[in-house]
């Protein structure tokens, strides 16, 4: 009975924690679904252990606990790989953003320099931008 | 071929940049220079601004040479430059060679590597490192079906076709700017060639060399090479 209690409490705990994270918008739905499903399955199996026993014998596991371990290992593996892929995407994006920031910063500086520069060449409609330098040979 | 742009990726090179920029101004005054400040903390960007002969684009954090070059290629494409020459910020590359590289691009080669160990100059590296570099040169020569002696050189000229490809897709990872980009380019049907150059003393800083480091380097290089060959990428460059 006490093991059932522990299982139910743990399952409900994960469930509540996931919902709370979702409520605080700290967790996105696409990641939350997995944890919700797992927590529910945990609660289900502890309340109705017969389900687990039937499933494990149907799948050919001699000890039901091994089925639980196997599933847990598999789930963690998949989650780990999925997160690696997501991190890769994020790196790609932050990389591109950094590049864009560098280029925008460059353009902004040029524009500010153009605006603040005294304008002796203002009469020329398409003067080459004053190339922020003084000792550049005039081309 | 139209306008060329010199891109200088620089990470904490405030010490060596002024002399490099002065040389570029003196020897190739007609070619614009963009220094890509790769998240430097030593005021590299400020040094370039004060020097006044080059534009500077500052990355918000350090992303490595590959990432810095991506900024250069994007900049070139968006500002109408046709060719891009990559020159190191530490003064190893002689600006006088820039024209020799570009002349080769003019002749129709898409990526021209300024190669050490090609008969010119006295550049030497330690035994294990040298072995690693030989191996890489051999493998990439096979892939690109041309004879390359130095594939990890950071002295390169890129044709308009290369610039178009690299503005869209340039590997930012470790060794991506050297090894992987060559695989990518030859897959896309670009031609690769080399021009022997003499390498000069570094203006500042010391190259790191030890057997253990060389082994790690080789391991990573082989992995990068292998992954680059495995990669499925869209690889057509529209004419």
Describe what this molecule looks like in 3D:
The complex is a heterodimer of chains A (139) and B (239). Chain A is elongated. In chain A, helix 1 (2-23) packs antiparallel against helix 2 (29-47) and helix 2 (29-47) packs across helix 3. The model of chain A is unreliable at 127-139 (pLDDT under 50). Chain A has helices at residues 2-23, 29-47, 49-59, 64-116. Chain A is built from four helices and no strands. Helix content of chain A is 76%, strand content 0%. Chain A is an all-alpha fold. Chain B has 239 residues and is an alpha/beta fold. Chain B has helices spanning 17-27, 44-51, 64-78, 98-106, 127-144, 160-168, 176-187, 211-230, and strands spanning 4-10, 32-38, 55-59, 83-86, 111-115, 156-158, 192-196. In chain B, helix 2 (44-51) links the parallel strand 2 and strand 3. In chain B, helix 5 runs parallel beside helix 8 (211-230). The radius of gyration of chain B is 17 Å and the shape is globular. Chain B starts with a strand and ends in a 9-residue tail after the last helix. Classes of the chains: A mainly alpha (139), B alpha/beta (239). The A-B interface holds A 95, 98-99, 101-103, 105-106, 110, 131-137, 139 and B 25, 29-30, 36-37, 49, 51-53, 55-61, 63, 67, 70-71, 74-75, 78, 172.
